[in-house]
Amino acid sequence: MNGDHDHILKYVVNKKELTELYVSAVLRVLAFSMIGIFVPLFLFKELDYSLNYVIFYYLIYSLAFAVFTPIGAKLTSKIGVKHVMLSSMPLYVGYFGLLYLLRFNPNIFIFVPLIYGMAEGMFWIAFHVDFSMFSEKSKRGTQLSRFYSFALLAGLVGPMAGGVVLTFSSFNLLFVLVSILLIGSAIPLLFTKDVKRNYKMSWNFLKAGSLKDLFAYIALGVKIMVSIVFWPIFVFSILNLYLSMGSLFTFLGVLSLVVVNIVGKLSDVFDKRQLIKWFSSGNFVTWIVFIFVRTKLELIAVSVFASLTNMGASVPFNALAYNKSKKSIEYFVFREMGISIGRVLVLSFVLFTGSLISSFLIAGIASLGYMLL
Questions:
Q1: Helix or strand or coil: residue 138?
Q2: Nearest to 52 by CA among 355, 360, 365
Q3: Which pLDDT value is given to residue 10?
Q4: Which helix (H) or strand (E) holds 185?
Q5: Which fold has domain 2-192+205-372?
Q6: Whole-angstrom Cα distance, residue 147 to residue 141?
Q7: CA 372 vs CA 211, 218, 227, 277, 369: distances in Å
Q8: CA distance 115 to 117
Q9: In sequence order, which ranges of 187-295 are alpha helices (DSSP H)?
Q10: Is 154 helix (H, G, I), strand (E, B) or coil?
Q11: Distance between CA 74 and CA 304 in Å, rounded?
């Protein structure tokens, strides 16, 4: 009887923790979905930086992310997991403030991505640790798909709202709105007790996962960077309007929302690796086809298939990653380091080749790398 009571108590606590995490993450996703796809364009189009400068910007960000991931992990043992997430919020607001000031003072260029990388490195290591502690292995696919669903719902509004603001106002107003939402995302984290995790900074995280795991996370890093930097620039070159671009991303979000709920349930029933194999193979094809896309109709058609296959692979991939972590903070540091390596590799490749389109070929190959996990 006591065992049943403990199980019920644990379920209630875990559900409350996850709900808190979901609400905070949704507000954060709403903020970033309003501006995320437009930041490379702000640098490239509004501030007239060359593609090489945009790449340097994200290289600095990626390196800062890698450095501050273990620092964030260490801070979870000092101030607690939630306090690490909370401490990243002022950094995010500072980042958007510096991004606004960059137009008037180009000398602060290096500090903008540096602050962004610091915030991201600290937030994500704490988020992954928190989610792994309070999610259940047998239901992780469903719980992860629920998180994706909430995030996608917020993401449906964000791109179009951002596009409307940019069409009828400016980036200045968008920076202010995003900063307010980010501050609001910190509030839900204040309602439950914080948890500290023991972590000693060392090179032991290198032993936390296998070489195959490392290559899988490098592949993930490649895809993330292509998706947030090179693909938005490519899409805008065809659509030429912020509102059209925001509308496309909102439409893709609706489709992803459906896929996430279906695949989340499937990944708790069927073999996750088999699902990854099917969807990542399809995603490989879409990235290769993107190389030949030239018209709006072609862009929309291929983007639909790309969105479906990407989300179909991402849910079981991330569920498998949380299962393999066994709630180990060292494993999450290992994961984030692999992602950072992938980011740096694809940025360096495009910098060397001078071809934005070449990143789609690398992203396609990286899609197949998901199968290594």
A1: helix
A2: 355
A3: 37
A4: helix 171-186
A5: Growth Hormone; Chain: A; (1.20.1250)
A6: 10
A7: 9, 11, 20, 10, 6
A8: 5
A9: 211-225, 231-239, 242-269, 272-290
A10: helix
A11: 41
Cα 234–chain centre separation? 19
Measured over the CA atoms of residue 130, residue 134, residue 136 and residue 140, the dihedral's sign is negative
- For residues 225 and 55, the answer to whether their CB atoms sit within 8 Å is no
CB of 251 closer than 8 Å to CB of 371? no
Q: Is 355 left (phi over 0), alpha (psi -120 to 50) or beta?
A: beta
* Residue 225 burial (10 A CB sphere; 0-12, 13-18, 19+): buried
Angle (CA) 226-242-146 rounded to 5° is 60
Helix (H) or strand (E) holding 69: helix 51-78
Q: Report residue 136 as tokens.
A: 């259940």
Report CA torsion sign: 101, 103, 105, 109: positive
How many Å apart are CA 30 and CA 237, to the nearest integer?
Answer: 25
Q: Say how far apart CA 211 and CA 209 lie, in whole Å.
A: 7
Residue 200's pLDDT is 67
- What is the mean pLDDT of each successive set of 10 residues along the chain, which is 373 residues long? 37 57 79 81 90 96 94 88 88 90 93 95 86 64 67 72 79 84 82 70 74 94 94 89 78 76 73 89 95 91 89 86 80 91 96 92 95 91
In this prediction, residue 212 carries a pLDDT of 92
